[in-house]
TrEMBL record:
KW Signal (keyword) present: yes
Secretion signal span: 1-26
InterPro entries membership: Peptide/Ni-bd, SBP_5, SBP_5_dom
Protein's name in the database: D,D-dipeptide-binding periplasmic protein DdpA
Protein family membership: Belongs to the bacterial solute-binding protein 5 family.
Source domain of life: Bacteria
Taxonomic path: Bacteria, Bacillati, Actinomycetota, Actinomycetes, Kitasatosporales
Localization per Swiss-Prot or TrEMBL: Cell envelope
Keyword list, A-Z: Signal, Transport
Chain ranges of the Solute-binding protein family domain: 77-440
Record PANTHER family: PERIPLASMIC BINDING COMPONENT OF ABC TRANSPORTER, PERIPLASMIC OLIGOPEPTIDE-BINDING PROTEIN-RELATED
Length: 525
């Protein structure tokens, strides 16, 4: 149905934007008069609808949508954003109440009410999109509203991590008038209430963000506009940075490019080196006749040389990882090293012969060509070299671009495949829960009933996260014993930028998502 009021609001917004743009041309002393800050990344969104993505699409969502809670620069726990306040109202962490800021509006002027919040959360579960974030809401029973500003979340079990869930971009608040209850939105328009509004979008190429004049939240915008350009690989992205076609790079910098920036081979560029908790790992599909066998998976785990991958492929810009929970988080363990020790072909052969397997095992390893950086192909070549050299495996490598790669693993087409994980929130729970259960982020069922039925619920009932260590360690050990997922490395976050760009140090939230609003050009004196 044609909405005349909305149409008039959009015309007014366009006219306003034109006036602002015209004024900026006359202001040579304004650092932003040089145009939008241009950010390059190799992590393009898979969909613009938050109900459909549990992946790197969140990079864009964080900047154009709003969540009840989020992370101001420097914060490690969620703080109110669209909300004025949020808290558990009971002693068992089962009732969570939020009060919205007064007068919230979407970018197009529509009011943002408690009903919009309820609609946004409920449609995630109703649609239950493959690869979508419904799995994050496993502890949610129902959402209630009271008036226009109060939202109450009733949980089916104690869950002290629920505020962290609400702070993920998956819980972005969308306009009920524009986002259907039962299906994903397919077009390239976006109606959010975040710091920026999406002025235009070209899939796989570019997202143009401009300041949202209706935004109310904690973000203090240091620029008026950001353009995000999506690259297929690090080489093209870094060339664009050196050629001054982009101002900042994020996600997907190759090791050689990182080293070159660290060595200051270009005085016009800078590198921000930050701690990271992103991980890379292998997934084994239980539907495959070989990958479903524990002995096969454990033999792979026994042979994989993480140190060689970190050194030879990534030039020590990543660290070997021996658990799905990375270093720096409460409960991190080293179970894969404790159980398997150093890589050993003889130990792997014994694992297989004890299981009655004596012939070389054929396995196909899949990876994506355009998601986790240009070293991904080199890493899989190194994995193939290690496993083939053992004489115990015959590895075939196959790859696809991310858009079709996702579809393939959701359909269970890959015997073994590579994934990366950028945390939803900085808690060990988020490196266990998303990977287990019948409906998980991998599209590959992993029941793990001891984890899902006892350990995680027990840990989530504990508001003091330091007291969850025993449960977290026990869950990790089960994952080591199953070897359904084999961790490979833990990364650090590097932001490459022109020397005239500031704010990169504050740009990454605890989930290593870039908050574009902190970036700005240095004022010349």
């Amino acid at each position: 149905m044609f909405n005349r009021n909305r149409f008039l609001r959009r015309v007014a917004a366009i006219a306003s934007l034109a006036l602002v743009a015209g004024c900026s041309l006359l202001s040579d002393d304004d650092p932003d008069s040089q145009g939008p800050i241009v950010v390059g990344t190799t992590s393009a969104p898979s969909t613009l609808d938050p109900a459909g993505a549990w992946d790197g699409s969140w990079e864009l969502y964080r900047n154009i949508f709003q969540t009840l809670l989020a992370y101001p620069s420097g914060a490690t726990t969620p703080q109110p954003d669209a909300a004025e306040s949020c808290s558990f109202t009971d002693s068992t962490s089962r009732t969570y109440r939020c009060k919205l800021r007064d007068g919230l509006k979407f970018a197009d002027g529509d009011p943002l009410t408690a009903e919009a919040v309820r609609h946004s959360i409920d449609r995630i579960r109703t649609i239950n999109a493959p690869g979508g974030p419904a799995g994050l809401l496993g502890s949610l029973d129902r959402v209630e509203t009271s008036g226009d500003r109060e939202v109450v979340f009733h949980l089916n079990q104690p869950d002290a991590t629920f505020p962290f869930v609400l702070a993920t971009p998956a819980m972005s608040i969308v306009d009920p008038d524009d986002y259907p209850t039962n299906s994903l939105r397919k077009d390239t328009s976006v109606h959010g209430s975040g710091p920026y509004k999406l002025e235009s979008y070209e899939e796989g190429s570019e997202a143009v963000l401009v300041r949202n004049g209706n935004y109310q939240g904690f973000a203090k915008l240091q620029n008026d506009a950001v353009t995000i350009r999506y690259f297929k690989d690090s080489a093209g992205m870094v060339k664009a940075l050196k050629d001054k076609q982009i101002d900042v790079t994020y996600r997907g910098l190759a090791a050689d490019d990182i080293l070159a920036l660290q060595e200051h081979d270009n005085e016009d560029l800078q590198l921000v080196d930050g701690a990271g908790t992103d991980i890379s790992y292998l997934v084994f599909n239980p539907k495959d006749p070989w990958a479903k066998q524990p002995a096969v998976r454990k033999a792979v785990a026994q042979i994989v040389d993480r140190g060689a991958i970190a050194h030879k492929v990534y030039k020590d810009t990543v660290d070997p990882l021996y658990s799905m929970v990375p270093k720096g988080l409460t409960g991190h363990a080293t179970g894969f090293f404790d159980d398997y020790g150093n890589p050993s072909v003889s130990k792997a052969r014994k694992i297989l012969t004890d299981a009655g397997i004596t012939q070389p095992i054929p396995l196909t390893f899949w990876y994506t060509t355009d998601r986790y950086g240009s070293e991904t192909a080199l890493m899989f070549q190194e994995l193939k070299r290690q496993l083939d050299a053992s004489g115990l495996f015959t590895i075939t490598l196959k790859s696809r671009p991310w858009k079709t790669y996702v579809v393939g693993y959701q359909k269970g087409e890959y015997p073994v495949f590579g994934r990366g994980w950028f945390p939803d929130f900085p808690d060990a729970d988020n490196f266990i829960a998303p990977f287990v259960g019948e409906h998980n982020a991998l599209g590959t069922p992993y029941p793990a009933k001891e984890i899902t039925g006892r350990l995680l619920p027990h840990a989530r009932a504990e508001s003091d996260r330091a007291r969850t260590v025993k449960d977290v360690e026990a869950a990790q050990q089960i994952m080591v014993d199953d070897a359904r997922l084999i961790p490979l490395w833990q990364g650090r976050q590097f932001v490459g930028a022109s020397v005239d760009i500031s704010g990169g140090e504050q740009a990454l939230d605890p989930s290593t998502i870039m908050m574009m609003w902190t970036l700005h050009r240095k004022t010349s004196w």
